[in-house]
Amino acid sequence: MEKNGNLVLPQKFSSFSSSAREEKLRESDRNLSLGNIKIEPFEKKELDLAKNQIKEEDEEGENGDEETNVENASHGEDSNPPAENEPDFETLSEEVDQFLASLTDPEKSDEVPEIPESVIDKFLDVVEKEVKKYENGDERWVQEHDDLPLLPAIGRVLHLSTETEKFCADLKYAHAMNRAGGILHLSMALLEEEFYLLLLEDPHVDSHRAISFGRNQEPDRCVLPHTSTEEEGESNESSLPYPSEIIERLQEIATTMISAGYTAECCQIFSIARRNAFESSLLSLGFERPSIDDLVRMAWEPLEGEIATWIKVFKHAMKKGFPLERDLANKVFNNNKSISSEFFQNLVRESVLHLLNFPEAMFMTKCSAEKLFKMLDIYETLKDSEIVIESFFPEEGLKGEEEDPTVSYNLDLKSEVASVRSRIGESARAIFCDLERSIKADNAKTPVPGGAVHPLTRYVMNYLKYACEYKNTLEEIFREHHKTSCDDDEKPDKGNNNNNSENPFAAQLVEVMDLLNSNLDMKSKLYKDLSLSYIFLMNNGRYITQKIKGSEETCALLGETWTRNRSADVRNYHKNYQRETWSRVLTCLRNDGLMVKGSVQKPVLKERFKSFNSMFEEIHRAQSTWVVSDEQLKSELRVSIQAVVVQAYRSFKGRFEQHFSAGRQTEKYIKYSVEDLERLVDELFEGTPASIIKRR
């Protein structure tokens, strides 16, 4: 085609403006938004302008054809043959293929082959008519229902456009090149639209979005539902979101568009559609990305549910979402690995940065003890993701390609994930260390009734039990942040654990236990009855040792020496209780002072029995209301009392009972049988008022 005597080559344009759309993507990336992106109205206007330009070129071509026909008629040439003699499209395609083969024949590289103008014009007319059939959008292009194989035909048009350019100095070749170029532009608009519509047919995207994520969690907010090993194995496998026939068609369209020089448009459409699909998959799990301000101000109860949902979403993205997108991109762009790799890495980078906003908000919230376990869950989730992200970003280009920005971006993402994980770990360590201050601050002056286990003991030991279930994680955190002191005061090395210097978390655990023991010693002094203070220390000591023995992690961290020493402390409390409570009772059952010159001093004997009865009743009345919740400890106490007191009473009564006359005198001084004492001892430490004592 010539204008003003100059040859005009066809210019590439697209319904998707490359520069404008790339700018929109960059703006989207800057805003860290994966929201639904739609084709803007101005892009449709560009499509109309493109069509008008093609129409003008077609009209010019038609005018040229008319002039040629007139000229041919004036020279007496025959007109076109009748329609019924027209070759079919398959024949036209074969002749076009033969012509294209002649253009690429190396033996004829110096010659300009004769161009079959009539065949090419008819071939292009048929293709143009087929493309325009779907142009207005009234009819959807379905490849299976094509009157002719359109994609291969568009491929021939592409080859015509590129191959005839070599001989564009020839006016006939220039005309064929311009005509093919115009139809190619129109075809690309159709392929772009079809490519986008096919990508929207993702059956895995749930259209029902949750109103607010985390609102419909199970009542137990702390623990995510456990997935079986089989389910976890399945979650690691990605299944493509489209049927094989759609993937094959996407692949063919992508290959054609890229071959035609429409790489930017093809990649842009694919990126938009799959980002929207990925966003929908997160929404289907209940994730709607609340703002950082909302998270910081949120109460703990709803926030706990939000954390559980975030963990579920993040694990889904790593184990299933990202692998699915990688596999799909590799399938669609199977002949262009660099394109699929760039798309996938961009998707991972942007999505992960969005998801990291959530844990970043967590370490901006106020530290409190109940947040520790969720912080550790987040920490472990991020740590697990680092290995997965490493596999997404192989460092193949690091050597000799230091200037490659993609490599730099990938390293930045890995560093960002590690940085957020480190800050979450720092927050978790601060929360755990705050347990010390909580113990020190518990200085209530009211003793626990009955010497029962103190609520502080229950809270601390249960807290430590669950914390030690994260033993490996906390050890890693404390080693990483070992230089940060839990308290401003210097802490002496108590040497409670040989591994303390090598294991900062174990040292911190021992410090917490020592603080708890000191606090309990202080609270034991609130009891006016020294025997009850020993019961209190026994109860709490036994509770502590049982909790430690019930947790392999805690026992391993504290060490066998510490555990044995604590058990020895409980035994000492037991001995002290017996001595303080029953030593005075046992003095009534001694033989000292009862015999004078071989005869029993009956008044002294009567006083001994009276004193024993009085003391025992007083102890029974008081200690039946005391509490020993550990059944084994309760049994040990009762057995020891019976072994010492009841046995002494049995011996004393058997020796001196005959010195009382039968009847009222015996009942007055010897009020209890041995069986009575055994029954009354079994009523101790039940936490109930004293029972009515009856003589047998």
TrEMBL record:
Biased composition regions of type Acidic residues, renumbered to the chain: 56-69
A matching Pfam family: Exo70_C
Keyword Transport: yes
GO cellular component: exocyst
Domain of life assignment: Eukaryota
Alphabetic keyword roster: Exocytosis, Protein transport, Transport
GO molecular function term, any single one: phosphatidylinositol-4,5-bisphosphate binding
GO biological process, one term: protein transport
Cited InterPro entries: Cullin_repeat-like_dom_sf, Exo70, Exo70_C
Gene3D superfamilies xref list: Exocyst complex component Exo70 (1.20.1280.170)
The keyword Transport is annotated on this UniProt entry: yes
Basic and acidic residues: bias regions: 20-30, 40-55, 483-494
Region annotated Disordered, chain positions: 1-89, 220-240, 483-503
Domain Exocyst complex subunit Exo70 C-terminal: 309-682
Function noted in UniProt: Component of the exocyst complex.
Family from the record: Belongs to the EXO70 family.
PANTHER family membership: EXOCYST COMPLEX COMPONENT EXO70C1, EXOCYST COMPLEX PROTEIN EXO70
Name of the protein described by the UniProt record: Exocyst subunit Exo70 family protein
Organism annotation: Rhynchospora pubera
